[in-house]
Amino acid sequence: MPHSEKLSAEKVEAIAQRINDRYPDLSGKLRKQILATVVRSLDNMVFIEGGEFEMGDFGTLCQYDPANMGPWPYGQEPERLCPITPERHDDYLHQVRLSSYYLSRYQTRLEDFDLFRTSLGLPLFKAEYRDREDLADYFASDNPTPVKSWQEAKDYCLWLGELSSYPVDLPSEAQWEFAARSRGQYLQYTTDNGNLENGRNILHDDKTFLVPVGQFPANPLGLYDMTGNTTDWVNDWYAEDYYAHSPQQDPKGPESGIQKVRRGSNYAEANWMSANSVRRWPDNPKSDGYYPGSSFRCSIQSAQVLDQ
């Protein structure tokens, strides 16, 4: 049995039994790999104590230095600040109150997503290119995995939940922003110190490809790569005016829609403009391929102690 930092031996054994019951026809080696992945994924969950915050674009200096951000509102009256983003669908500030939850320390790794597909009898995506030396960086096992659709990200998290017996899912948009802003503080950038320091706490602006998870310092809550390497899918449907009528308690987005919400930014974007904590943007829930720069992380929708 794999050692766990958070789970008792009895809990790990229960997960192992669930995996054996679910996949009796898989080899023992694959079942052990699945068990190790589930246990590690739970160990990587960071407890986020709930609370209340003002969600949305809270404003920034009209002329500012991303490498030297002071405490908000930077010595100004809040109403004299300029929008952080050029979009207007994040400008409606509104109070949100969240229950406690867990959020993964890392985005989902390519190796783990491959194992998920294998467990379902699905081929690895772009299998015909996996042995090419010039694409070794693209298929690095510790890279944040790309997904072709929002549903794949959702299904992976639900798979972890099924095997672990915890309510694992994608985080809500509000949960993502609350965690990125270190429990709702007025932090423009989701780095270890609130500043952008190219090459130290975020990718260089001229970086032309993503890097493995966890290469830069975590934010104060212990979450890695909340911005600057690849984006995160969240659970919510998108509506441009949702902030204006969002419920205060644990908002989960519109009941239906056409597009889903992404949060964060990716390696191909200008950090000073895109790598902030409030930008939200819609995207079609299904694309035509597995593109780097589009990933996800899972959450546990409960404050339950993990060993119970």
TrEMBL record:
Record protein name field: Sulfatase-modifying factor enzyme-like domain-containing protein
InterPro entries membership: CTDL_fold, Sulfatase_Mod_Factor_Kinase, SUMF_dom, SUMF_sf
Domain Sulfatase-modifying factor enzyme-like positions: 42-285
Domain of life: Bacteria
